[in-house]
Amino acid sequence: MKKLINNPEDVVVEELQGIELAHGDLVKVYYDPNYITRADAPVKGKVAIVSGGGSGHEPMHGGFVGKGMLDAACPGAVFTSPTPDQMLEATKAVDGGAGVLHIVKNYTGDIMNFEMAADMARDEGIEVEAVVVDDDVAVKDSLYTAGRRGVGLTVLMEKIVGAAAEEGKSLKEVADLARKVNGQGRSMGMALTSCTVPHAGKPTFELGEDEMEIGIGIHGEPGRERLPLEPADKVTERLLEPIVEDLPFKSGDEVLLFVNGMGGTPLIELYIMYRKAVKLLEEKGIKVTRHLIGPYITSLEMAGASITLLKMDDELTKYWDAPVLTPGLRWGC
Amino acid sequence: MVTKEMVIEWVKAYAQVIAENEAYLTDLDRQIGDADHGANMQRGFKAVLNKLPAAEEKELSAVLKTVGMTLLSTVGGAGGPLYSTLFMKAGNVFAGKEEFGLQDWIQALEAGYTGIVTLGKAQPGDKTMLDALRPAIDALIEAEKAGESFPDALEKSSQAAHAGMLATIPLVARKGRASYLGQRSADHQDPGATSTTLLLETATKTWAKA
What we know:
The complex is a heterodimer of chains A (333) and B (210).
Chain A lengths: L10 H12 L4 E4 L4 E4 L9 E8 L16 E7 L5 H11 L5 E6 L2 H16 L4 E6 L19 H15 L3 H13 L1 E7 L19 E4 L10 E4 L3 H15 L7 E8 L5 H17 L3 E8 L9 E8 L2 H8 L2 E2 L4 E2 L2
Parallel strand pairs in A: 3-4, 3-5, 5-6, 10-11
Antiparallel strand pairs in A: 1-2, 2-4, 7-8, 7-12, 8-9, 10-12, 13-14
Helix pairs in contact in A: 2-3, 4-5, 4-8, 6-7
Chain B lengths: L1 E2 H29 L4 H19 L4 H15 L4 H15 L5 E2 L1 H19 L9 H16 L4 H18 L23 H16 L4
Helix pairs in contact in B: 1-2, 1-8, 2-3, 3-4, 4-5, 5-6, 6-7, 6-8, 7-8
């Protein structure tokens, strides 16, 4: 295993220390329990947005803390859901008196730990609402699985909902908006390699030189099927077709196209995929009006990519375009 | 009868078992999950060992509650809340008691089982920790009906857990991260059922003189 780390046990804390030193103007870092808040938290009278999850997906979520996006992020151990005390303290730290929205990715651990934290926060008099993200179309039978995973759409939701909160929308409005985003966004990912969790010391799964994995998540776990390697254009089609079919996205729709790098894939390849995706969508009469390209929700050093499509309208576009100032995403200010 | 001291011995022994099996649990979880179960349990029980000395003065149910709360704030993932619930619910059953017999142990594990089902919404056959825990409890109940001694009942229960753990191998996961793999989760032993089996086997070894 080749990683630029020290002791595997110290990976998250050392990362937090680096974030603190680099972005002290934007965020505040807390330890034991670990969480990150925006530097000016709590923002009085504003709905606070809190999210979190295992580490290893950077810049999500800690990189998205700041004006116009998250008020707080809770980092768990690598690929491990954070614990209720983290979310409880973070919620209390950013509560501006207008309520708190928890954005929870649909994983068994995340759901349980966030639920417990929300209950504890409510016991302390804070109004908390939670919205679950479950955009992954790779997981088919929801009845016989833990349900669809929360993946790429999470990034888009945090931005859009963060902007609405910044504008002064109420907790109910912000939560409804989050659910609306969840209802009209879909994602699918693939991998060229697995990744190595520091503690494990070796890749989570092995892929041959000429193999690829379709339908992966963001935790290094294998996907739905293993196939022979194909060129980028074919891979793009393999990811886009199920996404379009699932919602379904229709001719005349306007979309935000998010081509995400899993961490180990260079931008050069993401742009090649983006070009093909736009072409395929145009052929279907679907217009790409906004985009995001790059490693925003990663799986350590996994090589691969995921595509997220979000159906846009004036409201979502307005919030997407709104200013944001975080370590991982910034425009308009 | 199992005393508070024996319960503390059990927890300490399990922490040692977890340390020894960390790589094994990691590897099981690598195959059908995200390879963090070993590290998570190790982190949790290391923290439990640190908290135990201060908790040892308290009554039995408080000791188990301390174990549960510590696991909740250190393990993370699904395992944290689930194991936390097991210890907390079991602890509640022992309120006011300083020692317990077979019937109480059955009640405690049943309470833990119900708590886990309520929280995780799994059932036997989903390829989870329940596939070790349920057979273990059923074995205890049968042994109790047959009038067996506490240690003999424990021996039967850990054997049943072990068998349940092995029986997860062919199962297709319907809960947790393994469920995303669909059919590919079959032919792999469930990590949660494994750590639960180790917990019950450690109880059997530690309480052989109950």
